[in-house]
């Protein structure tokens, strides 16, 4: 049973506000090639329409797929995916399908058809590539407009993260380098709401 529900796109930027490590997915329907890679550099850049930025190196096969198809997915892994997150970020998918190699179950996204991962992830987004900025060539930064998104209702409710000790196994990852990660800590709410 999936705990994922579609979210209002006006809340999609909040999925990345806290700086989690992400899994970037790509797919070329022409030949069936798909790929997944880990990335520590992602961020929201606009609320409405929801836009995000990711950094993908010129040598990455994911980059070739994104540039060819004009789309990418972002999945937000949880604590249970720490080993897999590190693994998919450490090998190239150029020679083999990492989804098959690591037994990753992916569903087809509803808008673009990108591979989206729910099992072991807290949320996912499908994005259309925006190419007019020039940042892609100069800084390896890709901008995308979120066209569909869903999140696990056990940790993302009514457009807000709800991370607590009761759902610690669903907390997101934050990469420190060298195979070291942190998870989200204690959530604190301000009195001025």
Describe the structure concisely.
GO terms for molecular function: FMN binding; oxidoreductase activity, acting on the CH-NH group of donors, NAD or NADP as acceptor. The protein has 193 residues and is mainly beta.
By DSSP (H or I, 4+ residues per run), the number of helices equals: 4
**Helix fraction by DSSP (H/I, runs of at least 4):** 10-25%
CATH superfamily: Electron Transport, Fmn-binding Protein, Chain A
Q: Give the termini separation.
A: 34 Å
How would you describe the shape? globular
Number of strands: 14
The CATH class, by name, is Mainly Beta
Q: How much beta, percentage-wise?
A: 35-45%
Low-confidence region ranges: none
State the order of secondary-structure elements, H for helix, E for strand: EEEEEHEHHEEEHEEEEE
């Amino acid at each position: 049973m999936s705990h994922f529900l579609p979210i209002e796109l006006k809340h999609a930027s909040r999925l990345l506000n806290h700086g989690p490590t992400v899994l970037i997915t790509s797919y070329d329907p022409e030949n069936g090639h798909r790929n997944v890679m880990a990335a520590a550099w992602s961020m929201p850049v606009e609320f409405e329409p929801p836009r995000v930025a990711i950094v993908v190196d010129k040598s990455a096969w994911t980059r070739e797929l994104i540039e060819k198809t004009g789309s990418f997915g972002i999945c937000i892994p949880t604590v249970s995916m720490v080993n897999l997150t590190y693994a998919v970020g450490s090998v190239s998918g150029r020679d083999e399908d990492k989804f098959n190699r690591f037994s990753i179950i992916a569903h087809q996204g509803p808008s673009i058809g990108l591979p989206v991962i729910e099992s072991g992830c807290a949320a996912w987004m499908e994005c259309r590539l925006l190419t007019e900025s020039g940042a892609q060539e100069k800084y390896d930064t890709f901008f995308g407009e979120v066209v569909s998104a869903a999140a696990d209702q056990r940790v993302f409710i009514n457009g807000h993260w709800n991370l607590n000790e009761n759902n610690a196994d669903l907390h997101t990852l934050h990469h420190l380098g060298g195979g070291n990660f942190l998870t989200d800590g204690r959530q604190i709410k301000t009195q001025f709401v």
